[in-house]
User: Fold this.
Amino acid sequence: MEFWILPACRITVMVMLISSTVQGVADRTQSAYFLPEFALSPQGSFLEDTTEEQYLTYRYDDQSSRTTRSDEDRDTGWDAWGAWSDCSRTCGGGASYSLRRCLNGGNCEGRNIRYRTCSNTDCPPESGDFRAQQCSAHNDIKYHGQTYEWIPVTSDPVSPCALRCQAQARSLVVELAPKVLDGTRCKADSLDMCINGVCQEVGCDRQLGSKAKEDNCGMCAGDSSTCRLVRGQGLPHLSPEEPVKTVFEVPMGSRGLRITAKGPDVIVIEAHAPNNRREEIVFSSPGSHSVANNTVEYQRGAERQTFRCPGPLYANFSIKVKYAGPKDTVMQFMFYQPIRYQWRETDFFPCSVTCGGGYQLNSADCIDIRSNKTVGEQYCHSYPENNKPKPKLKECNMDPCLESDGFKEVMPYDHFQPLPRWEQNPWTSCSVSCGGGTQERSVMCVEEDVHGQVSHVEEWKCTHSPQPISKQDCNTFVCPKWMAMEWSQCTVTCGPGLRYRVVLCVDHRGQHTGGCDPHHKPHIKEDCLVPVACHKPQENQPVEAKLPWLKQAQGLEETKVALEDPTFIPGPWTACSVSCGLGIQRRLVKCKVLLSFTQTEVELPIEECDEEKPPSQRACDSGPCSESPDSLTWPLGSQEIPEQHGYDWEYMGFTACSASCAAGKQMAFVRCVSTSGREIVDDALCSSSRAPLSSFRICNPQPCPARWEVSVWNPCSGSCGVGLQTRSVSCVRPVAGNRTEPASSIDCVESRPPEIQACNQVACPPAWVTESWQQCSHSCGRGSQWRKVYCKQRLATGSYRRLRDEECPGNKPAAHRTCFNSDCLLPRLEGGEWSKCSVTCGKGIQRREPVCRRQTASGQLVTLDRSACGGLSLPPLVRSCRMSPCSRHRYSKKRCPQVMGLNRIYIQTRQEKRLTFTVGGRAYLLPKTSITVKCPVRHFPKAQIRWENNGNELKSSKRLSITKSGALRIYNLDAGDIGVYRCWANQDSEKFVLKLIGHNNRLLEHPDGLEKDDGFHSYLNKEGVKCHEQKGSAKKTSKSDLGWMQKNEFYRDDNGQPKDTLALGKHSAAFVLEPAQFEELVRNITQLAESGDVTDEMASLLISKIMEDLAITEHGTANKELSTTVDNYSNKTPNSSTPSLGKGIKKGSRAKIVRQKLHGNAMSFQRDLRIHVGRTAYLTNATHSLTLMCPTRGSPHPTLSWSKDGAPLQNSERISWDGSGELHLSSPDLRDVGVYGCTASNDFGADSERSHVLMAESPKIAVSRRNTSDLNSRSVKVVVGGSVHVRVGANVTLECPVKGVPQPTVSWQRKEGPLTTSASTLLNGSLLLRNVTLQDSGIYSCVAANDIGKSVALSLLRVAGSAGESEHQSLNEMNRKRVLMASPIGTSITVKPGDILRIGCPVVPSHRKPITWSYQNKTLKQSPGRSYRILVGGRVLEMNTLGGKFDGRYECQTQTGNQQLTAWVHVLSQDFDWRLGSWSTCSASCGNRGAQVRKVRCVTTDGKEMPPSDCHRLPKPISQPQPCNLLDCPPSWVSTVWSRCSSACGRGFKERRVSCQQVEASGSVRVLPSAACDGTPRPKDRDACSSQACVEWITGSWGKCTGRCLGPALATQSRTVSCHHFTNSTSKTCDAKERPPTTRNCSSELCDVHWKVLPWRTCTAACGSGFQSRRVECVHRQKKKTLPDQQCAWQPRPVTWQHCNITYCGSECQDRTHYCPVVKRLRLCQVDLYRQRCCQTCSQDTSTT
Assistant:
């Protein structure tokens, strides 16, 4: 970090100058002076020091007080904002400022200072005006030789922030200061304040720059909804007899009062204050007047008086008028009257529970804003503007519950207060069976009490959830209707006959059903005529009896079902009475009705059915009788049917289905019938041997609908004051066999039954309630604590009532106690001072060392040895730091650095001492040659160029050096110098490949096999910035373009000609080739030799041939480019393709992507990420840009294309790529995740490569909070996160499911020490513990980590046997092996009797001087009865703690160097310990909610129980609960809440649902048949109820629509309304507000009338002034009848007469009115009407003119 340090002498001069300036000002102003505004500088700030004498001091900015720089600040060059200064005022609204620095040399946009308001509380009245205080500060200072009493000038529109003051009682106004102090009001009546001499806008919310304004009601940013506008006009008629009148009154609290009075009377305002003080003022002189602490502005004109009072009024104003003259005074007034009664939300009621999770509700009270007292709600309801706020609800007391015996883990529902809920009863039956009806149900808000009884409460308590609907549409489908089929053919082939059709009753689904009106059924047969003469005898049987039409019509006869109205239901037809020929069929026809509630059919008497009874018998045809030809004659009546004798069994039908769904059964039943009459007779008349076998059939196979199944309620969580009960609710579907199966909650269409309900809603007895202890008065050592103690009673509503202390039983708990905090005395690891930033500009890091410290009892921090903090976690030791941008170099301001490489190939043909090359190509050189590789750059300092070799940064050595110009020099090349060299200029780089040619013309290899380039990674220089400027294609040269040397000024001589870039001496010792010519040739030869396709000898000959050709070329044209033809052997990759060359040989090479060797994933937190295609990129929050590099080679130059997830990419603002093959993604985020592909292609083939771009995620372990206890299984598998309790010898698998990107690595640790040999880590990251023993008990932690972060999850493993004892044993073992180091500043430890105490003296192991140990300030030899040993040469003291007293102070003394070392430790005896007691009683007798815990007791060493406070310093073990009584509960009755009473007044009934249920051991609830609960009395499901006596409005039926006509076809009708009193009613009258209307509008044809207008009659006079009339009649529009005129009174009647012929008669011109002179004077003769009346006068006027 750079600082500008001023020399000491210069600082002295500055202070002296400032002092002199201040002194000069002081001399002019007689010891009163104003300090200049503080100045800002990049190094520090001038601040005002308010201590003692005022003067200016200079300090450096405190960098620690600055906030973190935002991204916006970093982009604009600003440093982070500093801390806010102290407020300029302590009350009344002041200003505070914050500063920031510009880090780029003063070129930042924006301001370096910002302000905010502060201390917005009002000042006390005695403090006075702030501007007046500043003026009065100059009272003792002489102005022009005289002192004045200065008062402020409050209204200065030109300079509101200048301190302008006026001499009291004088007209002298002086500007005493150019600026007032920050926080001074600009105007007296405004909140705007002056800051730094500028008036800044301040809203009514006291925030700077706020636009918030007070509304008309005085509410800041309000909507004027808390007041109402009152305006009116008064005209008091005063007289001497009645000289004073009150015009109107303005209530207290009103605002914006404005009165305008026009008249001579005097206005009087009488004020009535709340303290019964009366004040009256008569306005006579204009100006400001004070009335009851309110200012009234009074203005008076010639005839107008104006009063204005902004308010709010502090008293009730009565506006009166006093008589002052005979002329009346008109008053107009307006003001905003506050709504006196307003809703105000109450505080939240006390929590429903004290722990474990409950709820709180609030309400709203109606408040009288004048008295600030609560009044009845009817006052607030009287204002339509008032809307009562809905109650709010929030969770409370979510901490787990504590018991007296320690911590108890409970399930959330054990102590969760259920909310009041909506309870709805079943829907009533639909009003209609089809066509759309309605059904209703009652919905009420209920709460449950202690005993599980549900009571009806106010509806506002349930407003936290939407109220279920109480009315809905039902049976909206279309009613069944008749559908007729096509007619059949005529039954005869000649003459008259019949034809039939099928008529079906079809429902809305198109299925055949019943329910159609039989009276509207279309006929099924009709006559037909075949126009053919019949030539055979007439048939003797009726056409109805012919087949097949008869059977078809009979078979398709309608099947009828019972309806909600009585209906005839015919039964099935019996068999035909004869076996052949024509007989009779009979059937039973019954009158039935459908009961909608039970969905059962009930038989009624025949007379109950009003419709026509269907026939009970019909003719039948059983076919011709073959025995007798006569049988073909069909009988025509029943008397001709042969009678049968005897009796026989006959199936009569089936019983009702045993189930309405899920496959029920129907049993067939038979009856004995007479064979003659087919009547049912006694079964004894039939032979039992011939009785048919019993049979049944399956019915109603459709699946049952899902329903809710609930368990019994658990015991109440509280004995009083609103507890909670829970139960399980599941959606099940009944299946065959009285069983159920689980179903989805979506399948249960009815509302879900509640799972939580209130209980024990009875008031608790008064009890003491204590709040939590406040913090200890001292954070370290001994102090005091206080708490509040109240006597309260919890009411049945859940709220608390405060009582007097005398009403609570027992002694009042203590409200004060002493406290002691010893944790502060323990050593702790802290971070030391941060080091300087690792860089002077840009972004770097800071480091610090850990320091072990401890606080003494006096509060002083002392530093300890690092060993005293062993085992403690380290604080963060490294953090990033950001300095000012590295912008000093002229090259880094505008342009990005570029390395100007030259892509050429160099081949050395003879030995030379030194060669010079340019980076960007390849060189095949001879050993022992010294080379210089230049790295020409643009826009970058050459001194900062960095070089790498095979990915490793190069440093200067004996054989290698980097010049100041950035060139690389290597002396005497050998095989170790082979490799890829790369020069870096910030982010840009170029490489230089160096290879050596051996004596046999073969290429040498690196002795270590190193020949790679790891480097497409950015090298950050001092500036620490990265450049995003895209590289132009001009940087790379090609054949088609001009030579690079012709374009680059770095390679031009003084004459502008290209320089010799190789500088190979007089005789060139190297050839220069294009890469496409030589690189492919040498590469192919090398690959053929490595793959074995070409022998080493052949490869050697080929290279020799190349050298020979190069030698020949050297003696030829030196500038001729080498073109060699070789076979096209290429290394084909899976993603590459090469077109077939055929037999011919083509020049060039296929496109190929240059792949980098993978060394891990590209996981980086750099701001700008650059990776090669083929590697996986991980995006983080720090990634601002991503560049995918796809370098290619091939001839001709390949073309590149990019794709994402298989789809081609398009250039956009965020995604772009250039010809260099780099894909740039700016601001990458989640939408950029995918697979990116790069494809390079040319005429000789194509190649592609892919990269995965993923969003990095920190590890997340799917932790399980479930505690597992399995003492029976041999193998236990659990997910990490909970506690595991297993038996000895079990195999335990701890799974650690983790997610993260990159895939995290999983490791396991054990808190008690290293993992035992029985622990092994599986491939999936799980930990397997084989044959666990007591020593395996402990805390195991799974650590999942990747490059983003890490996650840790813990599990406690307890092995059955002595879990608690094993923990204590392991703890004792640690205590026995531990050596406590004494400290020069002292330390303390608690030791249990029996533990071995070892105390070490803090000296180095090589210490050889004698060490003296003492106990209680006496040497151990002087302390008899102490059993001890001196170990490790006197450096360790071991004490025996079994016998005698051992607690006290131990001290060691020795000589270290020239100083005396004294260290001591204070040992305390641990006489108490925590132990687990016996198991408690099970919390439940059955089900799955039972649990029991062991009590944790504080006991002495001999087992005696002590108060828990004696063990409060010791770690308390956790008593894990275990399940118990996992048994099925006995069946019991469960009932729902009662419905509302069916009658609102008088007696009625209420209903509820009652079912038999059983809670199983698994926790599920089964609904059992009622027989399972026969042993217990069944609760009632219906009971009588009665409501309070009441009165009710009784309305009669509406009368005829014959009332007064109101409009076209619109009249009125009326009805009677009377108040009906029920028995024992105490109400006298019905509520007039609820009285039903007695009249209403109705539609009447009588009112379809209009006025009929007849033509005008002839005028009564031909000239002069006559009149004419016409007839107007009231006529009915449709009937055309004339009606009385009152029928048309609702519309205006047309006029029936008018004036006519208003002209003078004949040629006589004379005046007809005595007003003609006035007409002439007013020049009205131009008007026809006046000219006719005043003909004579107007004619004179015309002749005159």
In short: The first strand starts at residue 44 and ends at 49. The chain has a mean pLDDT of 76. The radius of gyration is 55 Å. Residues 477 and 509 are 9 Å apart (CA to CA).
